[in-house]
Design goal:
Layout lengths: L22 H28 L32 E6 L3 E2 L11 E9 L6 E3 L4 E3 L12 E3 L3 E9 L6 E10 L1
Parallel strand pairs: 1-3, 2-4, 5-8
Antiparallel strand pairs: 3-7, 4-6, 7-8
């Protein structure tokens, strides 16, 4: 953002020493200073409102962040966010909504299958399972995981029309 402050509208050489200086020159300088302060206040307010913050959350309101280089980042465990946890105590059917259109959407599902469950998980037909999904026969919508913990990642490049599923790691006991 280029600043709209105009330092050139203030005469830094005014008033001239040893001369009779017109009051109009003072008024012009004061008006220029006032206009620049008003512009500066507006620009500072916009910067404070629209900046990324180091000490508070920053909401980019669906704006793209370009050429970002991330280091030491994490994902928040948040209902309906990128990382979900659940304990399965009965056969469970999953559905997916709100994958972003025109961007890659990603969800990690961290499941613990309790001893009281048979571990049959049913996913929508839009889900294409990778070869590494434990308990998948590759053709049905169901997966039989067995007991323990399993992590699945789901990605959709097209708003949920196609959802790609793979397992992260192995079945954890």
């Amino acid at each position: 953002m280029a600043s709209s402050i105009v330092p050139g509208n203030i005469d830094g050489t005014y008033p001239k020493s040893g001369q009779d200086n017109s009051s109009q020159g003072f008024r012009d300088n004061f008006n220029g200073i006032k206009n620049n302060f008003t512009t500066a206040a507006s620009e500072i307010t916009a910067l404070q409102s629209n900046k990324a913050s180091l000490n508070a959350s920053s909401n980019f309101a669906n704006n793209e962040v370009l050429k970002a280089k991330f280091k030491d980042t994490s994902e928040v465990v948040f209902a309906h966010g990128h990382y979900h946890t659940a304990t399965i105590t009965a056969d469970t059917t999953f559905s997916f909504t709100n994958f972003p259109a025109g961007a890659l959407g990603r969800i990690v599902l961290d499941l613990t299958v309790a001893p009281t469950s048979t571990g049959i998980l049913t996913f929508p037909s839009a889900v294409t399972k990778a070869d590494n999904v434990t308990g998948s026969d590759g053709t049905s919508d169901s997966v039989t995981t067995g007991l323990g913990r399993v992590l699945f990642e789901f990605m959709s490049p097209d708003g949920g029309t196609t959802i790609l599923m793979h397992q992260l790691g192995k079945q954890y006991a």
